[in-house]
């Protein structure tokens, strides 16, 4: 199994920045890609972006492209989500998740960290 722990959430004003971290442990060698998701109250979970462990290839949803950046530190088994130019609509619980192949579903999830953006 892979255990995931997010950190770095908090309260920030619109236009500000936050960096979330996701530390992976356990069978991390089985993880192909790490994704970030978010879920706002009353809404479905939304894909934010993802990064592959091997090549560091990233892709993002249109709603965050150009504002959010995902990076990884393979030595620390940690993935980061740098969020800039935050908007009130970015308010959500943010989750990281792991999947084992390019076509598999995300099968390991963290507990989530709250991000609140005030106007």
What is the gist of this entry?
This protein is mainly beta. The chain contains no helices and 11 strands.
Strand content: over 45%
Shape: globular
Give the mean pLDDT.
Answer: 95
Helix percentage range: under 10%
Describe the structure.
This protein is mainly β. The protein is built from no helices and 11 strands. The chain has strands at residues 2-7, 10-13, 18-26, 33-39, 46-52, 58-60, 68-73, 78-83, 92-99, 108-109, 113-118. Strands 2, 4, 5, 6, 9, 10 and 11 form a 7-stranded mixed β-sheet that branches. The chain has a 4-stranded antiparallel β-sheet with strand order 1-3-8-7, with no helix packed on it. It is globular. The model has no long low-confidence stretch (mean pLDDT 95).
């Amino acid at each position: 199994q892979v255990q995931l722990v997010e950190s770095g959430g908090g309260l920030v004003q619109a236009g500000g920045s936050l960096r979330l971290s996701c530390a992976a442990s356990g069978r991390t060698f089985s993880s192909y890609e790490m994704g970030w998701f978010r879920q706002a109250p009353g809404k479905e979970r939304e894909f934010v972006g993802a990064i592959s462990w091997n090549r560091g290839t990233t892709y993002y949803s249109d709603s965050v492209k150009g504002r959010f950046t995902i990076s990884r530190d393979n030595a620390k088994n940690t993935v980061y989500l740098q969020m800039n130019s935050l908007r009130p609509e970015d308010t959500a619980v943010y989750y990281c998740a792991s999947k084992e192949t390019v076509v598999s579903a995300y099968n390991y999830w963290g507990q989530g960290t709250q991000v609140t953006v005030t106007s």
